[in-house]
Amino acid sequence: MASITASVRRLVLPAARQTCCRAAANIRAPRSFSVLGPLQAESGTGTQVPATEKGTFPEGGQQVQAMGRDGDQDHVEKDWEFDDFTSKGHSELERHREARQYARITAYEMPRLSELVKQFQLPTEKQVLRFRYTTYMGEKHPAESKVVCEFASTDLGLNTIERLKLVKIVGVRYNPDTDIVRMSCEMFEHQAQNKRYLSDLVDTLITEAKDPTDTFEDVPLDFRHHEAKKGPPKPKFPKEWILTPVRQRMLAEERAKLEVVFQQ
Q1: pTM (predicted TM-score)
Q2: How many whole angstroms separate alpha carbon 217 and alpha carbon 46?
Q3: What kind and span of H or E run contains 174?
Q4: What stretches in the chain show pLDDT beneath 70?
Q5: What is the rounded distance in angstroms from the CA atom of residue 5 to the CA atom of residue 86?
């Protein structure tokens, strides 16, 4: 029995292999490629889809050479054959890479920041300007170039007339409660440019305040902008509503009269 089975295999298997090879060679391409091309050629519209070198059309997971605008082969695209991560898997890997990057920064680079620590020193009398910057930790932001400058009018070495003239010139930028002038600039691309502009502007204000040709004595001080920032005043409790001893006796007598009326 075993010898008969072996002889049958020797006769059947080669014939089956030859039949499969002939069938594979005669397999037609999908209708979208094999029929559309001749139809377009007969009707005179479009171009016939060319076949590859092996006689098959670019389907079934084969490599397709993408053509650029000028007809050049710029890259080779390949269909996904379940041999790589999905887009969601690559996003998860990117998230892990970013987390590990910040973990390495925390472990190896942040402890070295202690080497750059400087002891705080109070500003001297000549350092009357205070500048404030804004950073977004390496990310680009439209407000990153903004610089704010603050100074007190009494620290500029001006007399009373010159100081009042400076306060009138700066207008709404002056806070009468704290005697602080606050200005900002974001016209330029870099922070250094905005800082230089504010520094030059302060020098111009001091020059104008010291100009004796016009002292602005006929211009009154106007602090309505500061009152508006405070908001509406809080309502005050009327004095007539306060419960004084006399008021309490009057209320007790009225309640006693009402109780007599209700009893009748």
Answers
A1: 0.50
A2: 87
A3: strand 174-175
A4: 1-77, 80
A5: 48
The 10s digit of each residue's pLDDT in 141-158 is 989 999 999 999 999 999
Tokens describing residue 242: 């306060």
DSSP label of 71: S
Torsion sign, CA atoms 248, 251, 257, 258? negative
Query: 201-221: per-residue pLDDT in tens?
Result: 999 999 999 999 999 999 999
Q: What share of the chain is helix, strand, coil (3-state, %, to 5)?
A: 50, 10, 40
Is residue 147 within a helix (H) or strand (E), and if so which, with residue range? strand 147-152
d(CA 49, CA 39): 11
Q: Which residues contact 227 (CB under 8 A, 6 or more apart)?
A: none
Q: What is the pLDDT of residue 123?
A: 87
Q: How far apart are CA 167 and CA 216, in angstroms?
A: 10
| Measured distance CA(216)–CA(223) in Å, rounded | 16
Closest CA to 183 of 141, 208, 146: 146
Q: Could you tell me the CA-to-CA distances from 4 to 9, 14, 193, 221, 236 in Å, in that order?
A: 9, 16, 98, 121, 117
